Amino acid sequence: MGKVYVFDHPLIQHKLTYIRNKETGTKEFRELTNEIAGLMAFEITRELPLKEVDVETPVAMAKCHMIAGKKLGIIPILRAGLGMVDGILELIPAAKVGHVGLYRDPDTLKPVEYYVKLPKDIEERELIVVDPMLATGGSAIEAINVMKKRGAKNIKLMCLVAAPEGVEEMQKAHPEVDIYLAAMDEKLNEKGYIVPGLGDAGDRLFGTK
Ligand code: PRP
Ligand code: URA
């Protein structure tokens, strides 16, 4: 069963409080989403293996450490996942970025696929799927289905806010995928929105309605 990690770092929780607030405008929402994504990426990459390297400093030779050849891939689920990419790339600039385009049909709440473009060597990469919201779980489950069909093996899911219903569905559908969150909320409402959540993440990021 995939593990669920909720990051309780004070900076993450502080910034999340601002983006939940309905008074927070598009500019701040976008900046804070990227900042939270970067902080979460910092925590997620804590276990990356290191290799020892010799470096000549201006004073002497030093035994130093570098990340040991792990190839990373960031896979935002369009559109709202895009709002997390820059914050992660600031820390991991060499990561490749793939895109899975899905929108949730407002009546059926089922994901509808409209675009997929993934790194060629996806099977060799450690992949982080990013989307601010895990509500019913339908979009993230389908995105990972699409990725697995193209060879993806090593997958983590990173979301800002999740509903327990979506986490449960994800654990059933993809039990090997660990889930990283900034918050686990109470429930879904009758329209499939996370309660208390932060509203429609895509609309708030891009200023659409
Ligand atoms: C939102 C969100 C997730 C999905 C979550 O996207 O960004 O992708 O809904 O809901 P689910 O877990 O019930 O599938 P939306 O469909 O609104 O598209 P957008 O990102 O283009 O705004
Ligand atoms: N998608 C969102 O953007 N917000 C929700 O609360 C649920 C799905």
Automatic annotation (TrEMBL):
Pfam family, one: UPRTase
GO biological process: UMP salvage; uracil salvage
GO terms for MF: GTP binding; magnesium ion binding; uracil phosphoribosyltransferase activity
UniProt EC number: 2.4.2.9
Gene Ontology CC: one annotated term: cytoplasm
Binding site for uracil: I194, G199, D200, A201
Protein purpose: Catalyzes the conversion of uracil and 5-phospho-alpha-D-ribose 1-diphosphate (PRPP) to UMP and diphosphate.
Protein name stated in the entry: Uracil phosphoribosyltransferase
Organism listed in the record: Salipaludibacillus aurantiacus
